[in-house]
Write a structure and sequence with these properties.
Helix content: 25-40%
Structural class: alpha/beta
Order of helices and strands: EHEHEHEHEHEHHEEHEE
Number of domains: 2
CATH superfamily of the largest domain: Histidine kinase-like ATPase, C-terminal domain
Number of strands: 10
Strand content: 15-25%
């Protein structure tokens, strides 16, 4: 077992366990805090693979925030991934304060579920993100995997807080970076292990700027189908960019299409 999920909705729990079964990634469902304790205590340490803990922040019955706090303090040290409606920024902020490492909008979680279960969860770094140099205000990271990219995004959030960005800002930044990284690694680099994704960021007290550049051939964003059109509601293509544009102040692609610059004004 490498994944535990606190989910009380039957449809979602079946979707999560079914996806895990198809990927040979078993998922144990906890519908109570007692069951969560039981599953965590049953983990044999050191675990052969990192443990992922998924939390539905709208679960009924067990308190999702209490579940996060339990997992955060447990010796198994799971990576805590929570999902919530994109309109519940306050609840997302409470989950982050309780100890969640990553928070996704529910729609993004459903769309990316196979990738989330298949890829090993990142382990947050124990040191601060690198600082910009005197000659270049941007911090630059060359990321080899989506796991390392998620880790970089997680490590960046406390720095954003120091610059005064609100909890709703942090939620927006995390969702947008997740979508941009997934596009870069899966659609841009096509999961080629020989290719990396360059991530640059610059923070001020009023504006955060993020640049993600892959080594793919690029694409034309204008050619993507409108994911909100009736005929495209079942087609996931274009949803990631739609989320990026919804959460960021601006989203601009290079002429080739393999580089995106996103900005977020501080609320």
């Amino acid at each position: 077992m490498t994944t535990i999920a606190l989910v009380t909705d039957l449809i979602f729990s079946n979707k999560i366990t079914g996806t895990g079964k198809a990927l040979d990634r078993p998922v144990a469902i906890a519908r109570s805090l007692d069951k969560l304790y039981q599953l965590l205590d049953g983990i044999r340490l050191p675990a052969p693979t990192p443990l992922l803990f998924i939390v539905d922040l709208n679960a009924t019955g067990p308190d999702p925030l209490a579940a996060i706090a339990i997992a955060k303090s447990h010796r198994a040290s799971p990576y805590i991934l929570a999902y919530v409606s994109h309109t519940q920024a306050d609840l997302a902020a409470s989950a982050r304060a309780a100890g969640a490492h990553q928070i996704l909008a529910r729609s993004a979680f459903v769309e990316k579920l196979p990738i989330l279960l298949h890829s090993p969860p990142p382990k947050p770094l124990q040191h601060s993100p690198p600082s910009p140099s005197e000659n270049d205000p941007f911090v630059t990271l060359d990321l080899p995997t989506i796991t390392r990219a998620r880790q970089a995004a997680t490590d960046l959030l406390p720095l954003c807080t120091k610059y005064g960005f609100s909890d709703s800002d942090l939620f927006a930044i995390q969702v947008a970076l997740e979508e941009a990284f997934l596009n870069a690694f899966h659609h841009g680099n096509k999961l080629d292990p020989a290719k990396t994704v360059r991530f640059q960021y610059h923070l001020t007290k009023s504006l955060a700027t993020f640049v993600i550049e892959d080594q793919g051939e690029g694409f034309d964003p204008a050619a993507l189908p409108d994911p909100t059109a009736d005929q495209n509601l079942g087609n996931p293509s274009g949803r990631g960019i739609l989320l990026m544009r919804a959460y960021m102040t601006s989203v601009t692609f290079s002429p080739v299409g393999n580089k995106v610059t996103m900005t977020k004004n501080r609320e």
